[in-house]
């Protein structure tokens, strides 16, 4: 479970997040929408424990989130705008490094399986600096799910993915969702959320302006009109 209470974030004079309170239950799959600069990534980083709020609190599974709270950290897989990967290393080397960091005992099988799932078998020993944008993104996704986190925080995960990778990614989200993993996904791609999300949050100007549970067969046009009403006021 994720609880953010009255989160405010100020950068200098500017208020980036204003009083954001939201509770996300275990196993929910939530899409986070909103225009550029609305505060989505900032809120997600606060949930991930990468930055601190100016005021307000975050709790993960009922435990208040503090810096250096490693037990909570192991529960979380975070994919951000940056890949957090090392350019001079191959996918295998990067994943081995993170497996060690997460204290995984015998990660080889999991790493092999992931490399196959992201379809990089033929490039697994090549340095990332030779990779395309989408190949790096696929490796970053593997890094985020490597330790089988209970909570997956994804910031624009579809960036750079081709149609086949998007389809693989959608299946992966659906399957971890079914296993009971909590998924929070910031995205601008509405067609990628309709089958995999059961709730939508919309941010605008640092406020959480909409929190809607999606019921039954949600359509793309349904999500679009919800967004347009909130963001464009139409
Ligand atoms: N380190 C920083 N210093 C100053 N301002 C910042 C910083 N990080 C973010 N901001 C500002 O905070 C606001 C929210 O940024 P944030 O990245 O959370 O938006 P976002 O909703 O994720 O947007 P996008 O859809 O473009 O990714 C923006 O106006 C941005 O300029
Ligand atoms: Mg962002």
UniProtKB/TrEMBL annotation:
One Pfam match, given by its short name, reads ABC_tran
Please provide the record's keywords in A-Z order. Answer: ATP-binding, Cytochrome c-type biogenesis, Nucleotide-binding, Transport
Protein name, as recorded: Heme exporter protein CcmA
One biological process term from GO is: cytochrome complex assembly
Question: What are the residue boundaries of the ABC transporter domain, all occurrences included?
Answer: 2-230
Give the residue range of the signal peptide: none
MF annotations from Gene Ontology: ATP binding; ATP hydrolysis activity; transmembrane transporter activity
PROSITE patterns in UniProt:
ABC_TRANSPORTER_2
Q: Which InterPro entries match?
A: AAA+_ATPase, ABC_transporter-like_ATP-bd, ABC_transporter_ATP-binding, ABC_transptr_haem_export_CcmA, P-loop_NTPase
